Amino acid sequence: MRRKSFGALVGVAGLVLAVTLGIAGGLLTWGSAYIHNAVHNQLAAQQIYFPAASAFAHAKAGTEITPGMIPSVSQYAGQQMLTGQQAEAFADHFIAVHIAEMGAGKTYSQLSAESIAQPNNAKLAATVATVFKGETLRSMLLNAYGWWKASQIMWIAAIITFILGGLSLIGSGIGFWLRRTSHEQHTAPPLTPPVPAAVA
User: Fold this and answer.
1) Smallest Cα–Cα separation from 97: which of 135, 127, 46, 128?
2) pLDDT of 143-156, one tens digit each?
3) CB neighbours of residue 34 within 10 Å
């Protein structure tokens, strides 16, 4: 393949790829922003707040704040839940701890089966209802966290896509430059041989 044809092919292919990646990057950016804002707005509407910082100063097993919550939950003390990271911390390191304590480590399905076998046990029935509500909220928060992570992954993918698009655009420019230089070489006028000096 001649240099001129190769340069044209590289230039056009690079330009098409750059445009395609630019569109893909734009869609990924839009998707990331949409999910990010949707999760933020949905969490904000729930008006969930983390316990105040003072509560973590008296962490004790069996109370609202246990020592195990300090590393993961205390960093959000007093804040309103607005992000996926906060939702994950609240779901897995606050709600889950209290659910485990209420059910003595048993799952909702296990407690529910026991409650069905003991229809007159009002205390167990109340525990099952509370655990169900806690697991439902926990599930909703973890769903929000999952979508939040998806928005972050899409944002990273958008950045990578834009970088690749930029590289493709540079490659396209190089291709067109090769085509131009090849064209100039083929259209340059032939060199005129030097005229011999007259012999005296």
Assistant:
1) 135
2) 999 999 999 999 99
3) 12
How many CB atoms neighbour CB 69 within 10 A?
21
pLDDT for residue 100 is more than 60: yes
- Could you tell me the two tokens for 129? 């209802």
Q: List, in sequence order, every residue forming a beta bridge with 80; answer none if it has no partner.
A: 49
d(CA 67, CA 59): 5
pTM score, two decimals? 0.76
Domain-wise residue ranges, the chain: 3-185
Q: How far is CA 131 from CA 97, 126, 136, in A?
A: 11, 9, 8
Closest of 183, 174, 169, 173 to residue 4, by C-alpha: 183
Interval 79-92: pLDDT, tens: 999 999 999 999 99
Tokens coding 6? 């190769």
Q: What confidence tens digit (pLDDT) does each residue in 123-146 have? A: 999 999 999 999 999 999 999 999
- Please, what sign has the CA dihedral across residues 146, 147, 151, 153? positive
Specify the higher pLDDT residue, 189 or 19: 19
Q: Find the DSSP H helices in the chain.
A: 3-46, 53-56, 70-73, 84-90, 96-102, 108-117, 122-187
- Residue 49's DSSP bridge partners are 80
Does the pLDDT at position 194 exceed 70? Answer: no
Residue 1 class from Cβ within 10 Å (0-12 exposed, 13-18 middle, 19+ buried)? exposed
